[in-house]
Amino acid sequence: MKGPMTPGDGEIVSARHRADAGEQARLLTRMEELLQLQREQFELIRALLARVDQLEVEMRRIFPSG
């Protein structure tokens, strides 16, 4: 069991809490950046798939089957 806190202990606990909050803020910022990159990747994939669809239509027009 821990003994009574000394005045210095309170400062240490406070510093740890500030460090934890700072680390959480950095992690949240990084997660937001990663989410934005993921959104951009999905937009690019959608654009590429739309282009593939256009090319398929053009290929069918150029080379009709049957």
* Strand content range: under 5%
Head-to-tail CA distance between termini: 85 Å
Q: What's the helix count?
A: 1
The class by helix and strand makeup works out as mainly alpha
Major sheet details? none
Helix content: over 70%
Q: Can you tell me the overall shape?
A: rod-shaped
SSE ordering: H
Detail the poorly predicted runs: none
Mean pLDDT: 89
Quantity of strands, as a count: 0
Using the CA coordinates, give the radius of gyration: 28 Å
What descriptors fit this protein?
66 residues; mainly alpha; 85% helix; rod-shaped
Give a written overview of the molecule:
The longest helix has 56 residues, at 7-62. With 66 residues, the protein is mainly alpha-helical. 85% of the residues lie in helices and 0% in strands. The protein contains 1 helix and no strands.
Brief synopsis:
With 66 residues, the chain is mainly α. The protein has one helix at 7-62.
Give the arrangement of secondary structure elements.
Blueprint: H1 7-62
